[in-house]
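Page 42, continued from yesterday. The earlier attempt failed because a stray header line got pasted into the input along with the sequence. Redoing it now with the clean sequence only.
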Amino acid sequence: MNIEKGSMIQVAIDALKEKGSEMSFPELWAVVKETLEITPEEEMDRIGHFYADLSLSGTVIVLADNYWDLADRHDLQAKVDVTEIYSDIESASDDEADAKEEKLYDEAMMGVLREENEDEDFSEDEGSDRDRRDREDAADFVGDR
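This time it went through. Structure tokens are written below.
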């Protein structure tokens, strides 16, 4: 690559100025490769850097179908209708209703859990018998191997 001829971005900017209109990415890349004498071995490493740098430059913008042009040739005013944004924001009353609904759900779930647990006896004796049986089953399993 011939660095003395400038950066890839500068070459692309100069090419767009010279042409006077937009260019496709392959066209821009062909000019950059030729101008900077990028070898086929360098091409795979450099093309990604060029695309990223082009995207981030701010001087050049991407248009439809991967065509690129100088940003100062285009009106870049962004118009945003903020009423759509703010209409999506929940009001405080929505938050209160959600909190009340969540509380009712939690209370209902706790009632279900209490009912399920009432049927089971978790005394220490039963727990220790259960633990003992589990250890015996594990020892039998290991012994069978």
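Notes: The two ends are 67 Å apart (CA to CA).
Reminder to self: strip header lines before submitting.
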